[in-house]
Amino acid sequence: MSQWQPQQSVGDGARTTPDTAVGPSKDGGAAASTAASPQTSPPRHGESAGPPTSGDAGTARSASARRRGALAALLAGLLVLAGGLVVIEQLPTRYSTTSTISFAPRSQPNVSADVIELVANKYAVVAASTTSVASAAAAASVTRAELRDALSISVEANTANLDIAVSLANARAAATAANTIAAAVNRAAADDQLIAGEITARADPVSAQLQPSRSLLRVIAVAAALLVAGWVSFAARQISRRAGRPQ
């Protein structure tokens, strides 16, 4: 005879379901019991599903290392660029002017170009002589030693053109010195029976070239800054990878 038993309430009226037992099956299998388990609700918006994993920590460390490497590369590049610009501005400014003398045969049309070029080299020696340098230094109001250091004389390849270049801190003084030497060479060639000289291009202070070229040096400074920044960034990545590698 079965007896009636009332059900017990738990909490706020929630009912517990008694475990149900399943007896042995007809084929002799073991009995199985099922128990009711509470359902888990998904995490709310903004809540973490659980503690951070090792993968998340590794990603955070990698991002932090990249930021540090980028900052170090930026600082290194800026330092190199700033230092280079300061050095460029401190360089002494010089102005280079050139006067050109061209030689040609006087009356003998059969004079070869090699002979004319050889004669042009002879007058290059005249241009660099002590007399020529002294007169040019006096005209430009500079010392002989200063002018000799600033003087460059050359014969253009495969031509009979003699170039007299002078680089000084003053463009007008440089042009005066170059033109004075060219005039001295032209006077020396006036008595030559073989060739005649002519000043085909006089040095002009307005068209003097600035030395060293500031624009070229600035480009070099920017390139050096980028190179250093790239090297620092690469080194920072390598150090970060080695630091994160398990021992």
Automatic annotation (TrEMBL):
Residues 30-43 have a biased composition (Low complexity). Keywords: Membrane, Transmembrane, Transmembrane helix. The chain crosses the membrane at residues 70-88, 216-236. Residues 1-63 are annotated as: Disordered. It comes from the Bacteria. Residues 1-10 have a biased composition (Polar residues). This is Capsular polysaccharide biosynthesis protein. It comes from Streptomyces paradoxus.
